[in-house]
Amino acid sequence: MTTDQSKAPAKRDRILDAAEHLFAERGFEGVTLRQIASQAGVDVALASYHFGKKDELFTAVFQRRAGELNDRRLAALAEAKRQAMPNTVSVEAIISAFLRPLEDVQREGDSGWQHYLALIAYVNNHTYWGQRLMSSAFDQLVTEFIGALKAALPEAPNDKIYWCYHNLSGALTLTLARTGRIDRLSEGACRSDDYQSAYDQMIPFMAAGFYSVCKA
Amino acid sequence: MTTDQSKAPAKRDRILDAAEHLFAERGFEGVTLRQIASQAGVDVALASYHFGKKDELFTAVFQRRAGELNDRRLAALAEAKRQAMPNTVSVEAIISAFLRPLEDVQREGDSGWQHYLALIAYVNNHTYWGQRLMSSAFDQLVTEFIGALKAALPEAPNDKIYWCYHNLSGALTLTLARTGRIDRLSEGACRSDDYQSAYDQMIPFMAAGFYSVCKA
DNA sequence: ATCAAAATTCAACGAGCGTTGAAAAGTAAA
DNA sequence: TTTACTTTTCAACGCTCGTTGAATTTTGAT
């Protein structure tokens, strides 16, 4: 086949997929290159050939979908601004633009996005080297959303905005981790993989929190 | 010294302290027994002698302070009930009883509690084996608090209570992880180690969220 | 068909891992 | 001071890890 892009990079991508899955489940040190290669159906040396050191493979996995996720969220924010009068976008609409693209990629896509979002949760909770990755991949986007929140809450003290975003980010992170803990605590009334319910309640919850804390 | 309890178990406890610190920072697989022994100033074999396998050491670290933390939180909840009329404890008071004991142990104690709370964050975000530890250590306490929340919000649908607690737990977990991300995003306006500010804003934020979601 | 380049596998390395059994040191009662 | 016991160290084991250089296969243009 001439310039066949549907089959050419199969093994390289399968390494990324397997690494995404396993890193999200067990963390960087909890996974061996041999496990990744085995799940990808590939020799262990191939991961080094394509990606270099183990931490470079991790970085490649983390950055692979970051751009598309940022694009989707920015598009959702732009659409919210378009539908509202200038400078009147509600906090609910901003939070919705931040969260709904996650629901979208989970609903439409294969399980790759599920694993990727769990990987974000892992990195976001990691103190040392995780923060470099978070900043390089998402700081610009988050700053954009926080700017919109400041415009929607013009009287809010600067630090309160960030603390409120911190609450949102933490709740979201635990949602993305899908640990199954809520399933057990609620004895089945809630399910970790029920994203729609998670976001349906999270949006009004967080909006109410923002309004309450960012009043004065 | 006869029956001196201030010096007798020094090395055993130093292993627990070092393991607490390192496990919280780098996770179970991210730390070696040799690093723990080195930080404790002890031979590597001593950890195996006192605690057995590596995962048994981890369990011992995790359970060491769980009982005292549960006692403090239950005492705070009982005090909130005592100060209010029967069945009129506010959501704010319940959340406060859940959070303030964390602030207390951080303020009064050495850095051991700081590391322990970061370890809770690590375990809580861990999908597989983390959930067994969380359930055995904290399910009973959490069920107690959720019972109080249901009493304070009698009209709330059952599943909404659990989702709201999930939001609270996620935001708290990210706070305990102290990743430094909020410091960077806010350019110094907020600090991850400023627990008092974190809890001061979290209590009204979460209470407003509970009220908003648990209306119908 | 030829040939150079890329992709993939093979085989092995040195290092560090958790764990263990035996030796040594410390402790306290008889 | 002997004795029994606990605590700690020492030395080493078998194993798995990430990584690499050479060999092999595949690919795609000529």
Written overview of the protein:
- Two copies of one chain form a homodimer.
- With 216 residues, chain A is mainly α.
- Chain A has two domains: 53 residues, Arc Repressor Mutant, subunit A (Orthogonal Bundle), CATH 1.10.10; 149 residues, Tetracycline Repressor, domain 2, CATH 1.10.357.
- Helix content of chain A is 74%, strand content 0%.
- Chain A contains eleven helices and no strands.
- In chain A, helix 1 crosses helix 7 and helix 5 crosses helix 6.
- Chain A is globular.
- The interface between A and B is large, with 64 and 64 residues.
- The structure holds a DNA duplex (30 and 30 nucleotides).
In short:
The structure is a homodimer of 216-residue chains. The first copy, chain A, is mostly helical and 216 residues long.
* Alpha-beta classification of chain A: mainly alpha
Order of helices and strands of chain A: HHHHHHHHHHH
Calculate the mean pLDDT score of chain A and round it: 94
Total number of domains of chain A? 2
Determine the CATH superfamily of the largest domain in chain A: Tetracycline Repressor, domain 2
The CATH architecture category of the largest domain in chain A equals Orthogonal Bundle
Shape of chain A: globular
